[in-house]
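Subject: sequence -> C-alpha cells, single chain

Hey, anyone have a minute? Need the predicted structure for the following. Not urgent.
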Amino acid sequence: MKRFKLTIEYEGTPFKGWQRQPDFMSVQQVIEDAAFGVEGEPVTVFGAGRTDAGVHALGQVAHIDMRKDISAIKLRDALNYHIRPHPVAVLLAEEASPEFHARFSATQRHYIYRLVDRRAGLTFDRQKAWRVIQPIDETAMHEGAQHLLGTHDFSTFRDARCEADSPIKSINYIRVDRDGQEVRVQVGARSFLHRQVRSIVGSLFEVGRGRKTPDWIREILTAADRKACGQVAPPDGLYLARVDYDEDLSNAPADQIALGSIQLK
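Reply:
Had a minute. Here:
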C-alpha cells in the first residue's frame, strides 16, 4: 500500500465545506468518490484543513492510501478524470512517507482573504471575494492586524461551535495590502480556530471603514470574549492558499501559489 500526498484546488461555492456530510455535497466526498473509481473500493481522504461551506482552496493538501499499483502522475490524472465536472482539481500527487499525515504533519497553514471595495457588483469574482461598498483603509487594517501577531488567547475570534481543546493559538504573520480595488489579508499559523480568520477579517473591516481604530483590535483580543468580536466575514473571500510540511515527510511545497490576482509569496 502506498501513501500519496495530494495538492488540491477547488471552488467552494457549490459545496457544504470540505468534510463529508450525509445529506450534502462536500469536497471530501467528491475526492473519495473519485478514489473509489480508481481503486475499486472505498478510500478515505484526510485533509489538512476542514474548510467551511463556500470557502475556496488554492493549495489544500490531503493524503490517501492506495492498494493499486499506480504512479503518482497516473493517480493525479485518474482522480481528475473521475472528479469531473465538479470544480475540484488535483494539481499534484506525490508519494509520501507512511508517517506523513496531511493534517497532523502540517507545520503551517496559509490563508488569503480577498475584499473588493467598489460600488458596482462583482461579475467574474462573484462569490470569490467580499464586495464592500465603503472605501477601505488597508493601512489602518494592517496596523490593527499587527496586534494579533504571536501567541494569544483568541477566544474573541473563536466560533461558538469550535471543537479545539484550547483557544490559545500562534499567528506567525499577518499582513494587509492593496492591489487596485482589491484588499488582501494574508495570515499564517500552524493551526487556526474554527472561523478564526473570517472573524479577524470582519473585525479588521471595522477598522478599515473607519468605525474603529487600529488599537481596538488589541482591546478586543485582550477581552478574550466572543461578544467583543466584529462581524464574521462571509466565506466567499477566503482561500486556503498553502500548507507547509517538513521535507522529510513530504516534498517541499511550491514557494508561490497564484490564481489570477491572488498571490502568496
